[in-house]
Give the backbone structure.
Amino acid sequence: MVQRADFGQRLRAEHLAPLRRARVTTLQVNVGLRCDLACHHCHVEAGPKRTEAIDGRLAARILEVLAANPGLDTLDLTGGAPELNPHFRPLVRGARALGRRVIDRCNLTVLFREGQEDTAPFLAAQGVDVVASLPCYTKENVEAQRGRHVFGRSIEGLQWLNRLGYAQPGSGLRLDLVYNPIGPTLPGPQDELEADYRRELDELFGIRFDHLLTITNMPIKRFARDLARQGRGPAYGRLLSDHFNPATVAGLMCRHTLSVGHDGRLFDCDFNQALDLALPGPTSLHDIEDIRELEGLPIATDHHCFGCTAGAGSSCGGALA
């Protein structure tokens, strides 16, 4: 039996324990697990048949919490494909009316689904920042990870967003792309990959974007099962733990982000949410009034946390070091 490295023990060895929450600035909400895709790396195992989703009561509570906590400057909407939830647009409008930054983590193909024809113009009109999945600039690599016919739609979606003003000088409409490796490897240097993406997408498709965010594949759920089938799980775990970088710890997203599940339960991050690793503190968004009471609380960790601290680090905002 292969013995796994202990993340808490590694933090203690580096004099970085305990890992505690700092000031919370981002409310990241998984609005539901329904998605038009079923990507191999998806850590929440979203797909077309999933039905879990936030309801109107929770959507209203999210806006109440934002209004009561001015320190929460960002509402980060994820899924699944968050645009498929009927409460997505009221959440966007409500948060923007409160002056908050709103992020839509968009898979691009959803923009072409029936009933979503006006989603891209809606995002532009509301000034929503789009973080779009594009694991490579070649068709073969994208479709190996995300399925057939996805690459063409993704390119069309990016071109559409560009025409609406995204990533255009002076528009104020931000468009970031997300890269994650096809297999069990660490991402390459973010700045070098961004330069490659910028060159290839511009030359081949005339596409512009603001930044590329590199994210490490987490060894949990769907990706972990794929690794197990290949007999590569232990090796990938060792790769992550062997490349632990203490310089990434200060910037970990769990220190500044509060993750909210589709049922209102609270977690330190989206990965802990996928593993049902509960927040050490208040358990539901319905039970909390002042987000500041979370400051200083310990953060729940496990072996998968090596995924965020390996190499240059990984977060919803890209590399950390």
